[in-house]
From TrEMBL:
Residues 37-253 form the Extradiol ring-cleavage dioxygenase class III enzyme subunit B domain. GO terms for molecular function: stizolobate synthase activity. This is 4,5-DOPA dioxygenase extradiol. Its EC number is 1.13.11.29.
Length: 277
């Protein structure tokens, strides 16, 4: 548990940093990545060493899909095990990072385009803790989640992300957590252990997404249905794709773009992740 003195520090106003914090989109994949030593989890650990230590982490997770926009505002968010059919070791994991109520209020005030509810019931779901526990295993950095309003489309989320830009100046690591290609109905379960197996359509559209991201051409990504059948196969439902809108919306003209964990899994999933800045 975080000490009282540390908690007091967390509640103080965050100051602007000399270095602008990068933004991430992370393909989180199976919850088992949260406890296993995989090529993906090792890269998350390495990424934390490559970027500045954040003052806090704000995650937009595919697994908090709400009517309206909410942000976790409790002192110590619970670890949520929002899955079934996995080993008991996964359900036993606790990630006791503190929250940051003051930052939650500040973030809500930044989001002028949405009425943001300060939430005290959710916590950290597996779209967040499976990644962050590898990046910051000591669980001393405050972690918050921002929900995805399921009544709104990609353009709305892309524009809403821009209102979070001031947090990058204050050292907050903003991370979208989902998967660019995510079609569970078409997963080749017998090929999950292959190091990089993707159906042709999944690889093709994933490459198209990467080309557009590299070029800074976000409009087709926002209007992804215009990219044809392969895009609709990749995004049969939007919850795992919409976190990408938050990452892209936070990019400035000078930010460089790089990819990591750029692999396909089980035919119809990609773990492709992005670092901006």
């Amino acid at each position: 548990m975080t000490s009282l003195s540390s908690f007091i520090r967390f509640t103080s106003e965050l100051k602007e940093q000399e270095e602008l914090m990068p933004v991430l989109f992370v393909g989180h994949g199976s919850p088992m990545n949260g406890i296993e030593d995989t090529q993906f989890s090792r890269r998350w650990t390495q990424m934390a060493k490559e970027i500045p230590t954040p003052t806090a982490v704000l995650v937009v997770s595919a697994h908090w899909f709400t009517k309206g926009t909410k942000i976790t505002a409790m002192d110590f968010p619970q670890t949520i095990h929002d899955f079934g059919g996995f080993p008991k070791e996964l359900f036993a994991v606790q990630y006791p990072a503190p929250g940051h109520p003051a930052l939650a209020k500040e973030t809500a005030q930044l989001l002028h385009s949405a009425h943001v509810e300060l939430d005290h019931d959710w916590g950290l779901d597996h779209g967040t803790w499976t990644i962050v526990r590898h990046m910051y295993p000591e669980a001393k950095i405050p972690v918050l989640q921002l929900s995805i309003d399921f009544t709104k489309g990609p353009q709305y989320h892309y524009e809403l992300a821009k209102e979070l830009y001031a947090l990058r100046k204050k050292g907050v690591l903003i991370m979208g957590s989902g998967n660019m290609v995510h079609n569970l109905r078409m997963v080749a379960w017998d090929r999950l252990n292959d190091s990089n197996y993707g159906y042709d359509w999944a690889v093709n559209i994933n490459n198209k997404f990467k080309e557009l991201i590299t070029a800074g051409d976000h409009k087709p990504l926002i209007e992804y249905s215009s990219l044809g059948k392969e895009a609709l196969l990749a995004i049969p439902t939007p919850e795992h794709y919409l976190p990408l809108m938050y990452t892209l919306g936070l990019k400035n003209a000078k930010d460089k773009v790089s990819f990591f964990n750029d692999k396909a899994v089980g035919g119809s999933l990609t773990m492709t992740s992005i670092k901006i800045g």
